[in-house]
């Protein structure tokens, strides 16, 4: 365990490196500060991110830029309906040596990397989608009866379109829960789009440069886990997650009959890690209740489902989360004041 004085110095040093990393990313991925913050928070927490957005918003460029800035070996998989698990994981082939001897040799698939871009993940069949489950959770895959470790660190950044299209398959709940955050990539505002036009259509394009190495990212992930978290933040996380579970004693009245299910313990774990990462990126030594409120929607939205009646009424899951978070925060403030 790092001594408190050493921990403060390491946090301050890491904060400076993260600022340099964000500046390098912004040279190519312009104007999407919220998206960059959430993806970096996921990586600092050792998790995976699901990027939701329409085509052409720079999701692939973001992943490519991140691989450069974070010094990671990257691979890209374009998911299609005919993609098979072996296309992701790899397979064994029978080879014949010059002396006639025959033996199997394993050919690694694209999952054997440190940063995997899973493009349009919802276009693959459920069987192929499930091939990523063990890799995302355990950072290893089992092929031909043998466990094979993946790269360290290992992160999956997956994209999918938020609209129903022909040839798509919804992600199963178990796989959705493996994603630490869901990041919504939206259209840029007018000023941002002007900056993108000027920066990307000239003779010279912005170039990102390496700021981290894989070992430095692993040390940063370990440092995030050592950051102190105050009791008020812990209680806020517990109150928020438990309030979003329908038919539970702690459930908020706002979710009764509006949700089919709510977030599990993995959501609370995700919040505990990402609030630390967000505080660190903003130059603070410990997270606050405001960090919990800022991260509630991207952490919880893919871990909850509207009930049939709520969908029929047109209820918005994002608004429900915001309302519950505000209710929990107001109750906590009253308890402190009392």
Number of strands: 11
Number of domains: 2
Based on CA atoms alone, the radius of gyration comes out at: 22 Å
CATH 2nd-level architecture of the largest domain: 3-Layer(aba) Sandwich
InterPro entries: AAA+_ATPase (IPR003593), ATPase_AAA-3 (IPR011703), CbbQ/NirQ/NorQ/GpvN (IPR050764), ChlI/MoxR_AAA_lid (IPR041628), P-loop_NTPase (IPR027417)
Protein name: MoxR family ATPase
Pfam families: AAA_3, AAA_lid_2
Domain AAA+ ATPase: 45-189
Task: Name its key features.
338 residues, alpha/beta, Rossmann fold, Helicase, Ruva Protein, domain 3, 2 domains, 5-stranded parallel β-sheet, two-stranded antiparallel ribbon, 11 strands, ATPase_AAA-3, CbbQ/NirQ/NorQ/GpvN, P-loop_NTPase, MoxR family ATPase
Task: Walk me through this protein's architecture.
It is a single chain. The chain folds into two domains: 1-226, Rossmann fold; 228-338, Helicase, Ruva Protein, domain 3 (Orthogonal Bundle). Helices cover 48% and strands 15% of the residues. The chain has helices spanning 4-26, 33-44, 59-69, 85-89, 126-138, 173-176, 190-200, 214-226, 231-243, 265-281, 289-300, 308-313, 317-337; strands at 49-52, 74-78, 90-96, 102-108, 115-119, 140-143, 146-149, 155-160, 181-184, 259-261, 305-306. Strands 2-5-8-1-9 form a five-stranded parallel sheet. The protein has a two-stranded antiparallel sheet with strand order 3-4. Strands 6-7 form a two-stranded antiparallel ribbon.
């Amino acid at each position: 365990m790092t001594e408190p004085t050493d921990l403060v110095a390491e946090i301050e040093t890491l904060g400076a490196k993260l600022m340099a990393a964000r500046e390098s990313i912004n040279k190519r991925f312009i104007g999407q500060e919220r998206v960059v913050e959430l993806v970096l928070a996921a990586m600092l927490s050792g998790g995976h991110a699901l990027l939701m957005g329409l085509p052409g918003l720079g999701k692939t460029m973001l992943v490519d830029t991140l691989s450069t800035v974070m010094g990671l070996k990257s691979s890209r998989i374009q998911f299609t309906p005919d993609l098979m698990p072996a296309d992701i994981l790899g397979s064994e082939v029978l080879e014949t040596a010059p002396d006639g001897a025959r033996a199997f040799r394993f050919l690694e698939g694209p999952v054997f990397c440190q940063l995997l871009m899973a493009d349009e993940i919802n276009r693959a069949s459920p069987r192929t989608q499930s091939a990523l489950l063990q890799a995302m959770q355990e950072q290893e895959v089992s092929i031909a009866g043998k466990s094979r470790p993946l790269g360290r660190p290992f992160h999956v950044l997956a994209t999918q379109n938020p609209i129903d299209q022909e040839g798509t398959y919804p992600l199963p709940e178990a796989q959705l829960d493996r994603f630490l955050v869901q990041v919504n990539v939206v259209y840029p505002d007018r000023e941002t789009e002007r900056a993108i036009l000027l920066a990307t259509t000239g003779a010279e394009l912005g170039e990102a440069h390496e700021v981290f190495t894989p070992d430095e990212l692993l040390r940063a992930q370990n440092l995030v886990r050592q950051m102190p978290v105050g009791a008020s933040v812990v209680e806020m996380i517990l109150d928020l997650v438990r309030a979003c579970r329908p038919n539970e004693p702690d459930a908020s009245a706002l979710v009764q009959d509006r949700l089919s299910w709510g977030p599990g313990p993995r959501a609370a774990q995700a919040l505990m890690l990402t609030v630390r990462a967000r505080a660190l990126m903003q130059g603070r030594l410990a997270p606050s209740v405001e960090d919990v409120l800022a991260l509630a929607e991207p952490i919880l939205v893919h871990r909850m489902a509207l009930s049939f009646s709520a969908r029929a009424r047109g209820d918005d899951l994002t608004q429900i989360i915001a309302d519950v978070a505000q209710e929990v925060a107001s109750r906590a403030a009253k308890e402190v004041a009392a």
